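Lab notebook, bench 4. The sequencing result for the construct came back, and we need a structural model before the next group meeting so we can plan mutations. Quick request posted to the team channel:

Model the 3D structure of this chain.
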Amino acid sequence: MRRKWIRLTACLLALLLLAGCGANAAPEIPETEKDEPVPADVPAETPEPEPEPEPETEPEPEPEPEMPEEPEDGQAPQDQEGRQSLDDPTRQIVADMLSAMTTRQKIAQMMMPDIRYYGTEGSAVPVTELTEELTAAVRDLGLGGIILFADNIQSAQQTAALTASLQAAAEEGGAPVRMLIAVDQEGGAVTRLSMGTQTPGNMALGATGSEMDVRQAASLIGGELAALGINLDFAPDVDVNVDPKNPIIGVRSFSDDPELTSRLGAAYVSGLHTSMVMAAYKHFPGHGATETDSHVGLPVLNKTLEELEACELVPFAAGRQADVVMTAHICFPQIEKETYVSKSTGEEITLPATMSRTLLTDVLRGQLGYEGVVVTDSMEMRAVADHFDLVDASVLAINAGADMILTPVELAEDGGIAAMNDYIDTLAGKAEDGTISAERIDEAVGRILKLKVRYGLMTGTNAGAAMSGATAPEETVGSKASHDTEWAIACRAVTMVKNDGGALPLNGDGRTVIVVPYSSQLNSVRYALDLLTEEGLLDAGADVSVVDGSALKPDQAPGLVADADAVIAVSAMYGYGELDPSGGSGRYSAVLDAVMDTLAETEKETPFILISSQLPYDAGRYPGASAILLCYNARGMKEIPAEGAPVQEYGPNLPAAVYTAFGGSSPSGTLPVSIPELDDAYGPTDTVLYPRGFGMTY
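Done. Here's the predicted structure in token form:
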């Protein structure tokens, strides 16, 4: 069979040359662009703690068919409906590949495991280069893709070598197409490139409301991924963050407005496409209204289809340009009626969206017209692993309409490789006996192959092996130009919702105390102060103290701020429990309360400036604050960037907010979400304190 695949590959390459298929050159992003107005009305790694898609209408008469327009360079071909299209030679290429594949090879193309660690329990180490065993596994399994995590990514050169070796192993196995090499590089709170440009993150981009800012940020991400040989980004997150108590999305979301989310999500895809990096919308049909994190439990959302159509589905309805859609492990009992008996509780549970034919086939495919690849979220997440047998879950997902299975088995050791072989054999057997139809398998694999051909991932070609051109990866990843662009966007995202008595901007006179909740943010503040000093906006001898509040107790507040002329308190909210000073997770809020009480007892009317650095909902927690700035990403700095030295990834948002507080920039962001008032238990109410679209400046 391998020889047949090699002969087929040679024939297909000839067809490709005749058809003119392959990766296009990426266009440059325009330097200026008129932005549409903002409507006027957030596993993954975080600082501390670590945290990691149209309504039915009457059918209209079909218009006369038109020829699709010539696509822009660097963009996947589109038809008149915005769907990805293929010319006839390419269709024949895909058909020929399918006909040459065994059932087992087809099933393997539907798999995307991870290689985060390798070794026996207790001695496993991160995979930063392929071992002989993993090389043989990738060569022999014929996998459709691999997902990388931060553990796999230590430097630009090392990562580029790792992805090249992955593709070389796959090609050695005789596959006619390369693998999808994926990563979760959303920007902001969820990133995997320790040496890359973090970018401000989706909610900060929502605060700018600028499609150009989104395209620039996504283009930076895409360029860095392409330089490393990573061709699929599981981004953007287009969940609409309608529930402030959502424990997993938060600042990963652009907004609580589905229209703004839809507009900026499309701009993000456009930015990734400039580097020929594939984009994925997630998490269908929407994770922004849940109060359970599917990494640790199985969320249930009692919304009707009509309710989803009015909100969560809006971005997905407009997202046909997304190459991939990732599913959510969320139960929708008002929509899906099929059930499964939980292996852990023995109770009947509603099939989650990942396994729901109603949602994946009837709604996503039928109603919304999506024609790209559908991939599950990780099958190792507890929402699935706690309740479903892996094979059962995979069969249900494939029959529901999923085309690829994400991380079903960890290739952590020889046992993991053997388990993956057994798993593929078992699913192939399910296809052979009709449990999974041959038509469903061919449909799924056909979509995967079409996507790979579209992006030039044919073995034996240069396209797709390394998409970075002649530029060395270390010259692209985390470059000064990228960090400069990142900084400018972060400054534009800073939002001010209160400024009583013109408390801001500060001028540095007298003594200023800045308190941060995490030690990792100390360098973030110092970086901003150094920049202000270099630019002559802050005297070199200014009396500014930066205090690590991670171990402070409330009774230490008086001695800390009693003689201060201004206090900046940085808050980093990850959940509402942190706002309650009586709870264990609310210790820092108790410190800030003590700071405010101390200032209230002085006769100087010392301004208390709040910088909300993560979830923006803490803006309603401190009504006595003189001024409130928001920046939407609390990630800190391991080290202050030095001229000419290698730069570790850092969060630009907090430094931008401190810089703005001292007048380095004027706040120009507007709230991408509404901020509710709090009740007596420090939970959100239905009363809006600061509405979406609100923002002040000076």
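The first helix runs from residue 2 to 19.
Will bring this to the meeting.
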